[in-house]
Structure formats: structure tokens, C-alpha cells
């Protein structure tokens, strides 16, 4: 077992050396020392070891975990330092700036509330062994629609008003491009780049040609989630949905689950939250109904698994698409989504500064 642990550590050392991206490094850390990481897997067989063997294996495993934690911290610090140095090398100092722009003044920097919530959610999912993925804003029809069980003549295409790129010289059968209307595009990219079982989240900006109001923007943010494996059930889905809400709100919030239609899931659900702006009494955010659509989800449709190259006879899974801006509104009591990207300093400076 000691040899196995050393082998795992050697693998880690080899892999971490080539990484330059912070998310990849954190993913690697959880792959090795996360709750379901390689080290924990090895330690499962500790129960069969003799007391002497256990005495040697326990400290060895701890040493390796500490080494991995230290190496990850050192690597992240080095990347940050490199980024700062690159920025410093390429930026120009404006010596005409007056000294009222200083730490603690109203113009001091700060994190956008969406960044705060997104980071919190990423930490929660990383700790549960999920990867974090990204995808392009400009997409093709295949990833945005076809692979998600929405062929060109399907009425569900009208559910999301799409910004298309128009190429006047394009032939009729050429690939058409668009601004992605949802983060579900990353489902297909994620499935095609890994083998089951896997689980990932994918936060990102999406675009719809919609009329704006207190709870609708044309450019907004979602956070996709997907878990694929054997025997995944609706109760796994509900467990993860409840975990996110409990961790984010740190208190019980009222939710309701109702049937929802999305061609890429079957069955599909809408998870609504009791509006925290008006306590469910009715306001412009919840359109006077007292509930806000927040977290649609469902069991992945077999056609989508097939489009992702996955054997739908053997594997199944769930997916969800969290409305990130609406979650931020509920968390901080923001009564109009348009404040979020207004750039108004009176709004922005209410949140945590660094
Ligand atoms: C979708 O976009 C699906 N892709 C979600 C999904 C993923 C379902 C996986 C099942 C499985 P919908 O159009 O309802 O679904 O958008 C998801 C969430 O984004 C909504 O619940 C809402 O919280 C948020 N949202 C939708 N439109 C807007 C908008 N215009 N402005 C702000 N938030 C929006």
C-alpha cells in the first residue's frame, strides 16, 4: 500500500508540473486528495491491513496529502505572481491620478456580487469532486440545439430567442453560428471529452434577444451542472440542488419542484424559489406570482447522451441550468437584474472590497 501511495504521489508530481491554469490545478488536487480522490480510494483498503501496517500507512498518507496541498499552494502563488508581473510589465502608471483613489475609499476595488457567488458555488462543487469547464460564447447550431435533442424544425427553438451571425455569402447548407443561448452547450463538449462516470459544472455568460425587465436581461449568466454514471437517479439530482441552496443561503429557503419541459431532459423539472424580495407576496421580480424560476433540471435524455458519445443503455445522468444572476438577486435582495451590469458605483460599492 505504501508503494501504491508513492506511485500516486509520483503521478501527481508528473501531472502538476505541466499545468499552468489555476482551475486545472485545483481539479487535479481534488482528483488526488479530494473526498473521492485517489488517496482516499487507496485508504479504503486500510481495514484489511494489520495494526503495524496501519501505523506506517496513516502517517505516509498524511505526508503525501500535506505535500500535495503545499505543492498546489506554491504553484498557485507562482501563477498569481507571474500574472501580476506580466500585468505590471504591460501596464502604464497614470501619475496624474489624485490620491483620493486609495484603499478604503469609495473608489477602492471590489468583487462583483456575481463573482462572489460564483466562486462560492465553484468551491462547493470542487469539494464534491466536480470539474469546472468553460466553453465558447460563439457556438454552432449543433452544440446549442441539435446535440441537445432540438432539431431545426423543433418548436423548442423558439423558447430561446437567438442572436444569429449572418453571413451574406453563406451557402444554405453551411454551418450557422450564434451567440450561445444557454450553458447547456457545454454538456456536449464535456461529455465528448471524458468517460463516465464524471461530473462537472460550467458557469458562463449567455445571450438572448429578449425584452429586459426586473428579472430578464439579454446578457446574463447561468451555471450548468452535469453528472453521468451508472444508476444516477432523481434523488441524486434533488440532493445536489438542495446542497447548493443550503450552502449559498445558509438558511432554509422555500422551494417548489414542478414538471418542466426541456427537450434535453426526461423527466424535466422547474425548481422555483419563494421570492425573497417580496417574501412571496408578489413584486416585479416574481411578476406578482411569489415564485422565481431559478434552477431547471432533469434526467439527461438518452439522445443527448448518444450525441455526447455515451452508451445510453449503460449510463444515465442528471443536468441542471442555474440562473446565476437570479440567485445573486435572491441572496442579496437585489430588486432589479439590470443593476448587476449597470456599472453604477453606488450599486457596486455595496459589496465586499479587497
Ligand atoms: C435553460 O436555459 C436550460 N438550458 C436549463 C437546463 C439545463 C434545463 C439542464 C434542464 C437541464 P431556461 O431558459 O429556463 O433553461 O433558463 C435557465 C435559468 O436561467 C432560468 O431558470 C432563469 O433563472 C435564468 N434565465 C432565463 N432567462 C433569463 C433572462 N433573460 N435573464 C436572466 N436570467 C434568465
The small molecules bound here are: adenosine-5'-[phenylalaninyl-phosphate]
Number of strands: 10
Give the class-level CATH name of the largest domain: Alpha Beta
Provide the residue-averaged pLDDT: 90
The coarse silhouette is globular
User: What composes the largest sheet?
Assistant: 8 strands, mixed
Would you give an account of this structure?
The strands form two sheets. Strands 1, 4, 5, 6, 7, 8, 9 and 10 form an eight-stranded mixed beta sheet that branches. Strands 2-3 form a two-stranded antiparallel ribbon. Helix content is 38%, strand content 17%. The model has no long low-confidence stretch (mean pLDDT 90). Strand 6 (255-259) and strand 7 form a beta hairpin. Helix 1 runs parallel beside helix 4, helix 2 runs antiparallel to helix 4 and helix 5 crosses helix 10. The protein has helices at 2-17, 22-33, 38-43, 51-90, 113-127, 141-144, 185-192, 234-249, 302-307, 324-332, 345-348, and strands at residues 131-132, 138-140, 177-179, 198-207, 219-229, 255-259, 265-274, 291-293, 297-300, 316-323. The protein folds into two domains: 2-90, no CATH class; 113-348, BirA Bifunctional Protein, domain 2 (2-Layer Sandwich), CATH 3.30.930. With 354 residues, it is an alpha+beta fold. Adenosine-5'-[phenylalaninyl-phosphate] binds at residues 160, 182, 184, 208, 210, 216-217, 220, 222, 262, 265, 268, 293-294, 296-298, 319-321, 323, 325-326, 337.
